[in-house]
Amino acid sequence: MYNVVGIQKINYVSKKTGAPVIGTRLHCMKSFPDGSTDCEGYSVDSFYCSSIIDLTHVVVGCDIEVYFNRYGSVEFVRVVS
Known about the structure:
Elements: E1 2-13, E2 20-31, E3 42-50, E4 63-68, E5 74-79
Antiparallel strand pairs: 1-2, 1-4, 2-3, 4-5
């Protein structure tokens, strides 16, 4: 589970393909409870979500679960709280 700490709108033209890239990048952090891993504190990640993924309920401060397809791309984001 991740906590959303930032939401960044993405809108540019790819230099490789010339196609527009439109989506959202979710900046998130994950806490590690004491003793659960070798890590202390927080880890951070960012996830690119294409414009077809429904993020209407995702806001800064909410907890989410991120689901990936077999290629490693975000397929679904579920708001937990």
